[in-house]
Design a protein that fits this description.
Blueprint lengths: L3 H22 L7 H14 L3 H19 L7 H14 L7 H17 L19 E13 L2 E12 L2 E6 L3 E5 L3 E6 L3 E6 L2 E8 L4 H17 L1
Antiparallel strand pairs: 1-2, 1-7, 2-3, 3-4, 5-6, 6-7
Helix pairs in contact: 1-2, 1-3, 3-4, 5-6
């Protein structure tokens, strides 16, 4: 007669065996169709329940994410591969929303390194026929009125010709050619201008600093050429 302890030990051993097989398949940050088929066959053989799979799915996804991004480069193929991992593990977009945003940012940064700036649609500013919007982000704008500083919510738009800071009560458009220097920080940036007071901009969303800094620096550099 098999004891309860023997059953629990055997069940734990089976889960560990599948756990090992899953993470071994994910060591390159993706799951091929053949690997998925093998995993499903193994899961059936070991009688791993959907509940047991759910218990390890987030850890498995983050493991795949770490492997896919360890070279700090993200390709379109890797985005598709992470989607396939997500689908197999049964994770919703809400479950991995932060990670997907980071993948998207890293994909943009990978393209910027190649000299390819993103192109975005924006309704916040009217562009001239030769102007292209490269990024739009929600920010806090610091303004000075009667020697008092205050902040207001706004939108930062970076184009191939200028940056536009459009707030609830004010809008500022600055040609890239008038930017002397930019102090970049994790939470925002200070744009130093020729014959004007600096623009102090604070990001509303964490993680924007890398993308904004890379796009603005590249746009300024391309404008100088």
């Amino acid at each position: 007669m098999v004891s309860i302890i023997d059953l629990l030990t055997r069940h734990s051993s089976d889960i560990n065996a599948f756990y090992t097989a899953l993470f071994d398949a994910l060591k390159d940050g993706k799951l091929t169709e053949a690997e998925i088929a093998d995993l499903e066959k193994k899961r059936e053989e070991l009688r791993i329940s959907e509940k047991a799979l759910q218990a390890m799915r987030m850890q498995a996804y983050m493991f795949a994410f770490a492997k896919a991004t360890e070279d700090q480069e993200v390709t379109d193929d890797e985005l598709d591969e992470m989607e396939q991992v997500q689908d197999y593990l049964g994770l919703t977009d809400a479950d991995v929303s932060r990670t997907k945003k980071e993948l998207f940012r890293m994909r943009i940064l990978s393209e910027i390194k190649k000299g390819n700036l993103p192109v975005v649609q924006t309704d916040d500013v009217v562009l001239d026929p030769t102007e292209t919007a490269h990024w739009s982000a929600s920010v806090m704008l610091e303004t000075e009125e009667e020697k008092k500083s205050r902040k207001q919510k706004g939108t930062l738009i970076i184009t191939n010709k200028r940056i536009v800071c459009k707030g609830d009560e004010m809008s500022v458009a600055v040609p890239l050619s008038s930017i002397i220097d930019v102090d970049y920080a994790i939470d925002g940036m200070t744009v130093h201008l020729n014959r004007r007071k600096p623009l102090n901009i604070q990001y509303q969303e964490k993680g924007d600093h890398n993308v904004v800094a890379s796009i603005l620096a590249s746009a300024i550099d391309l404008r100088k050429r």
